[in-house]
Amino acid sequence: MWSPSRRVSRLSRLGALRRRAGDLTGAEYAYRRALVVAERHLPGDDLRAARLRKDLGVVLKYTGAFDEAAALYTQVHTVFVARLGPAHPDVGMVLHNIGGLSHARGRPADGETAARAAVSIRSAALGDDHPATAADRSALAAILDATGRHDDAEQLLKRALEVFERRLGSQHHEVGVTLGSLGVIDARRGDFESAECRLRRALAIKERWLGRNHPELVPTLGTLGYTCQRTSKRGDARALYQRAVALLERQGLGKHPQATALRVDLALLDATSGRDATATRCGRSPSFR
Q1: Which end of the chain is more exposed for a tag (fewer CB within 10 A), N or C?
Q2: How many domains does the structure of the chain reveal?
Q3: What are the pLDDT digits (tens) for 18-34?
């Protein structure tokens, strides 16, 4: 008979494996089962239970259960600060997640304070050149870009990209994420040639790490589709949009806000067929975080 601690560990590992495989339903189920065991048998401020809540919150961000994810992150932050101290890197990690959640739910300005605190904490604890600090800068950049500060966002992203390529290699997943975010900025500025180049490279890297059927590919597919639409590559745009919608539907997320936005893009693509391809929602490009 396994001890509660071993059951929590096994279920947590299963959740992580399911998430990496792109099975969000399976990941959520495993994390919830682990959390039931942890809450029944472990102290309320146990760090393992807090980390489980953080992992479940990440999955719920992707499935669109934003309110529950926010509540979980708040609990995690409280436990980490009390047990580890306010300057611990794990506190920076959950602040990173809080900022990313605000961005994902369309409230980027609400997440800026948390995102800046994450950069400050992990820079002080781990160093400016650490990949975790670079990831925090990349997350802050996404917020700045969404609130109109594109030049500031670009500087942060290029700094993060240099760290990732040097420390992790040019084909690492974080490189793909950062290239995707730079591609979003290019698309906003109307530099669609650069956007397409960066986004295609980002997609290739992400597919290498995640596989071709992972739901985390959806934002990249959507923004690349938008870019192709603006350069009259309508066939490519349609295929990319349709693939992104299919990935969400396969996860049971057909009503997710991203799926709704992608269907609007498809409808606009069909509505402008044979007419000016610029008659689209020029300002919209999906979030990368």
Answers
A1: N
A2: 2
A3: 999 999 999 999 999 99
